[in-house]
Structures are given as C-alpha cells and as structure tokens.
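Q: For a teaching session next week I want to show students how multiple molecules come together into a single three-dimensional assembly. I've collected the sequence lines for a complex. Could you give me the predicted structure tokens for the whole thing so I can convert them for display?
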Amino acid sequence: EIFHEPKDEL
Amino acid sequence: MNILRLAGDMTHLISVIVLLLKIHSIKSCAGISLKTQELYALVFVSRYLNIFTDFISLYNTIMKLIFLGTSFSIVWYMRYHKIVRRSYDKDQDTFRHYFLVLPCLILALLINERFTFKEIMWTFSLYLEAVAILPQLVLLQRTKNTDNLTVQYIFLLGAYRALYILNWIYRYFTEPDYLHWITWISGLVQTILYGDFFYYYFLSWKNNVKLQLPA
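A: Of course. Below is the structure for the complete assembly, covering every listed component.
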C-alpha cells in the first residue's frame, strides 16, 4: 500500500 | 515538508494573490482567461475531495481552503462583478475548455493508481491542471497590450510547478518508497507547456522590454 498513504501535497 | 515544496506552495499562493490584487485594486481582469480560471476551480474541487476525510496538517487544510476559496472568488469576480466583468476579453477567450475536461476524465478512468472515486477524481485533477493554462496562454498570445501583473501571475503559476518538480526529485532521494509516476508526468507536462512562455519571459526581462508572445 505504498501508493495510498493520504496525499500530503497540494 | 522540505523547503522546495514550501517554496512551490508559496509561489502558487503569491500567484493567486497577484491576480486577486489586480482584480481588486484596478477592478480589471483584462488579459485573464475565465476558461483557465474555471478549470482551476474544477481542479481544486476534484483534488480536495479528501479535505474532510483525510487530515494531514493544519497547514494542508488551510491551504486547501485558500485555493478553493480564491479560485471560486476569481471566477465570481470575472462573471458577476458589475465593473470587473466589463474588462473581460470574452471575444478573445475562445478556447473550448470542455475539450480539455473530457479527455482528462477519460484518461483518469484509464490510467490511475486505484479505481476508486476519490482516486480517479484526484488523478483527473492532475491531468486537468497540467493543461488548464492553455486557454490563458492562447489569450496571452492574442492580447496586444498585456499588463505586467498578468505576466507576473502566469510566471509565478509556472514557477510553482517547476519548484514542485525539484521537490519530487528531493523526496525521491530522501524518502523510501516515494514513487508517484502520474503526479510526476503530469507535473512535467504542465511545466513543459510553459517552456515557450518562460523563454520569452526571460528574453523580455533581459532586454527590459514588455513581454509579447509571437503570433
């Protein structure tokens, strides 16, 4: 699940 | 958060402030593409669907609210403000923006990291942001007397994504498992679209003359 951490960029 | 990312966010923020300043102080949106501004409003709505579901930081939430709020207020000003809307170059701003929206949506349905609603909307927002500047660049090329604030606004908007690319490179080398191909490629395409503009921007800056894109 490396791709699906919460998106931290704007 | 690294300094490159922060610089990118701040450049983005300043670009919006410059645009609002122009609209607010001289009550004019001459040279600004409403098509591009509407696309940005759509970009932020589709990207920030996670605003209430995933809490990342106070900074993150506040910035999201600012980008949503400012993009909608710019569209409102250009469409409905009784003085500002008169300066809108409607006849010049003819780019058909729905021709950008549909292909981006289809591409997001085909190429994404995960087939969920939120993920597809996020991906759609990345694809759309990459091309959303096109109506603005077309308008810039058509406009004879572009004022300085419009040029600075476009430059800052391009600089923001260029700084994000440096941030991605930095994160790739400093964070384990940091791989986001879709974000990177869209961001790269977005920055490349500015290539021509950047070239003439630096030329006009070097020769100290007004920027005008060749037809």
